[in-house]
Design a protein that fits this description.
169 residues, alpha/beta, six-stranded parallel sheet, two-stranded antiparallel ribbon, globular
């Protein structure tokens, strides 16, 4: 964290509450829990990517919806769009892995941004797929950015992840 300290930063994340495969119903998404913790440590600004039509609350329907989006390479509408990251040097991008890929609402947002000369700190939550095909997918979206070391945390261990997050930073 020392070499990034003092650089203007933003956290761009997608997180989903409701029914979760590993832990049942949750009020706050696992990725959001970690995003808030990193915000405490880095003082980065935060931007939450939200699908305009939310995914279903039950897990099985949600994953079916996300699979259709992925299979069709859809770009679902999002509630708000971050128009620019020009004022930031370090961009933390975080999301859960959906079908071994970025969730499509996150793709909708990330493709709208200019990644030239940015430092990207990627983070994912998953329940067994680890990083899957996401590193190559993210690098193709964030052209010209320096993508640093990844952090991947299982959904079921999010609340025990603070030491891993601190070490990663």
């Amino acid at each position: 964290m020392n070499d990034l300290k003092g650089k203007k930063s933003i956290i761009i994340y997608f997180s989903r509450a409701d029914e979760n495969y590993a832990v049942g119903y949750i009020e706050k998404g696992n990725t959001e829990v970690i995003a808030e913790y990193i915000q405490e440590l880095t003082w980065a600004e935060m931007f939450k990517v939200e699908r305009k039509i939310p995914y279903a609350k039950d897990y099985n329907t949600c994953i079916k919806e996300s699979k259709i989006e992925n299979d069709n390479d859809e770009r679902p509408e999002i509630v708000n769009t971050l128009e620019s990251i020009d004022d930031y040097e370090v961009i933390y991008v975080w999301w859960p892995i959906y079908w071994w890929q970025l969730p499509q609402p996150m793709v909708t947002q990330l493709e709208k941004l200019n990644w030239e000369w940015k430092i990207v700190r990627p983070f994912t939550t998953h329940e067994g797929s680890w990083l899957a095909s996401v590193p190559s997918q993210l690098r193709s979206i964030c052209k010209w950015a320096e993508v640093l070391e990844w952090l991947a945390i299982r959904w079921s261990s999010v609340y025990d992840a603070k030491p891993s997050v601190e070490k990663w930073l």
